[in-house]
Every structure is written in structure tokens, then in C-alpha cells.
Amino acid sequence: MRTRLKHYSIRLHICILLSLVLVFIWNSGIVFADSWPYYRGAHHDGISTEKIRVDWATTQPRQVWKVPLDPALSSLTISGGKVLTQARRVAPDGVEHEFCLALDAETGRELWASPPLGAAFYPNGGVGNDDGPRSTPCVDGDRVYIFSSYLHLVCMDSGTGQIIWKRYLPELYNSTVIAWQNAASPVIEGDVVIVNGNSPHGTLMGFRKHDGNLAWQSQNDWMTQASPVAATIGGVRQVIFFAQSGLVSVEPKTGAVLWRYPIRCNNISIAASPVVVGETVYCSRTYGPFAGALRLKIDMADAGRAFTATALWEKPNQLMNHWATPVHVNGHLYGMYGQTFVQLKCLELATGTEKWSIEGFGYGNVLAVDGKILALSETGEIVLIEAKPEAYTELARYRALQGKCWNVPAFSDGRLYVRSTLEGVCLDFRTPGKDPEDSSPPLAPKLSFDLSRGLKISGSPGLKYRIEYIDNLTGSQPWQELQTLVLVKSEEIVSVASPVGVSHRFYRAVSIP
Are 374 and 454 in a shared domain? Predict the structure, then answer.
């Protein structure tokens, strides 16, 4: 086999310039496109801009793996080659507890299970024997954060699952657990992990992500099951809660309130997250059903920007989202609507006008991928749908897994990760490769930069690559070998040392026989 050279150079600013860039990226919350580090994705909106095939009828999605999982309503996050979720299982003491699990994204093999994270006890009913933890882990660098059903806020090492710090909020802050327990996932903004801790001393709470110390505590907005979302509105970064008092937005570093919009509490459950589109915020709930959208007016004030929230439209007793949050595509919302009789609907965001509805999905969930709607039914079917308000147009359908699917899927690097209360599956939606024995060239290696570890190389599994570097492309200096490695998975990390006195450096990946 002749040597095939695929040269892809990356200019990496290092020393002072690189440090400044990395600090900016880190503090801005920017993530790479192939990660899904938070509940409902990198931007808390259930949207992926990656491509997805539509020819499932002729070429079905490739099942990469399928594994049994212990019960949970927790969803999935994808980062650093791992799939993170929660589960209910029996601990060494013989009692059921909640655990955080890490699976290998390539094989589905369990890499680690955390120590027990608190009680797995769900007394309010309505789910069944397959009940389990509700919230979803979030990943930040080499750490994983979870907020358990009984308000354990825990930081773990992503490589081992060992606990770095843990805060039991009922013991430390007199926090109370609501009926159906906590289902909200934490939000990380800059240096702060943000939750509604339901404490009488201040419900909204920010903790330093490095050591778990309290950064701020404020307000009296009692918790719901709805996960907060982080968004930028009018150039101002903010975290928006759907609390029992209504919508409340706070400044991430201090917890100071930016704006409020009161909505009467239903005293039972609010579980769908707000949807932010530009300066419009949509929210909905069941049980005393309500749906509405508000428009934020932004006034330039002496001390910054002042927000005024006014109703764009409201529809009491209509258009209720139970716990599945809709997604936004081109001015329209697509999602599961209804309390006991659930339909997939398309709404016009500006008016709340229903464009179409279709039955058959049950308490499922939706993502937006490649400008299309990827719907997961309660019974484990995935359906690809045109995101068009004119009519429901189904493009493809595939039976993915068994069990109750009340969990939100995750989409990362061309693959869909789905779980139910019984099992998890990884499906590849990329264009299938040719037979490895033909003369086609291998997948061109791709280099990117992992903030916490160094260069990340993605290429054809099983092939050997040589990482080379050069300090000056215009000079006569030859390319130097940094490291040779065999890709046994789809990606590998190469640590990069920054030599003193070098202001920039170029890298390339070379495939070798």
C-alpha cells in the first residue's frame, strides 16, 4: 500500500496570544461542534447544525452499539469520547441509589459508575416501576456535574467518576425537595454552576465550579422541574429560570435579576424549559395549562441595559408542553403538546397559531438537526420530518430501541445517541463508507484543538497517522515528527507542549502505511 499524505495545517497561537484566546473561549462558553455537553445540547436549545442523511429507506442508520441500561428519565450528554447519563441501581449496601454513568461513545461499554449519589426513591407515582433519576449530567472540561433528584450537587472527574466535591443542599441550606423530585439539570456559565436550590435563604444559587463554594444566592423563586437555559439577549448573557413565580432571568456572575415575567403557578408541575429566539422567549406548561411568548424590550441605561418583558401572545388552556421542550426552526416551534392526549405540533412563534398537528408520538421528544425535525416517539421510533409549516411531511422512520422513551436524544459528530428506561443505542447517520478492501483513500485526518488536553485528531479507525509540526512555513525548516499513533477509535488526543520563544506553530496529520 502506497503512502498517502493528507496535509492539514493548523495555526495554533501559543504563549501570551494563545493564553488570551483560550481564556476568551473558555469564559465565553464556546464549545466545539462535535460535542453535546449540556442538557439539550451546547446551546440549551436542542439544535444541531450537523448534516443528516434522509435516505433511510435504502440505507438504514448504522447501529454502532446497543446496550442495556438501568432505569432513568435522565437524558444524555456527549463529550471527550464519553456518553454521560444517570441511572437507578442497587448500591453495595443493597439499597437503590442514583448513579452517574460514563459509556464509551464508540462501543457503549461502561467506563465507570460514580459512587452512590443519593436516594433513588420516587413516591409520587405516575411513571411506573422503571422510574429513575430525572436530571442530565453536564460536562465542563475534565469535570462532570449533576444535580440529583434529592438536591445533591456533585462534581466528578470525567476520567474516573470519582467525586471532587459534593454539596447536599437540604443539609447546608435547608433546601426542600418538591413533588416528583428535581428534574432540572445544572447550567455552567463561566466559573459558576447555577441551579434553583429551593432554599428559604435564596432559591437561585451559583456555586464555584472548581471547589463548590457558594458564589451567590438570591431571590425567592421556588423551583420547578424545568431546566434553566443560558442565552444571550441584547448582547447580555443571562440564565433564565421557569420558576413557580414565572420566568426570571439573572446575571450569571452575581445572580442579580435582569427581568421577570409573572405566570401563575399550577402547584403541580412545570417541566419544559423556556425557548429563546432572539429577543423572544416562549414558555408552556400543563396542569392549569398555559402557553405564551414574550418580547423583551432593551433600553440603554446609565448602568448598562435594562429589560422590559411584555406579552407577545398568551393562550391559557392551550398548547401545553408537558416536559418535552419544543425546538425552533425558521420562525416556527415544533414539539410535543398535550397533557394526556399528546400530538406533535407546529406553531408560528410570532402568533402562537397552530399550523399542523399529528398523533402517534406519545410522550416523546424532538431535536432539530440539519434544519429538519428529528422526533423520538415514546415507544422508541425515530422519525425525520421536514421543518415546514405548510404540512407534516415525513422523510424517514426507524425503530431505534425498546422501553419507555421520555428522554431527550443527543446528536454528536453525525451520530444519534438515544436511551430509554431499558437500553441505550448509538446510530450513525453519516454517509456509509466503501468496502475497506477497495482502493478508496482513507478518511482525511482532521485536526482540532481540545482546550483541556491538546490536539485532537479524527480519522479512519485502525489507520496509523504521524503528527508533524513546523514553526515557519516560509522558511527551509523541515517538518518534524511530534508523535506517531494508531487510531483504534475515531479520535485521539495528542498533548502539545509550547516551546519558549515560539509565537506560533503549524501542525499537520500524515497517514502512513
Answer: no
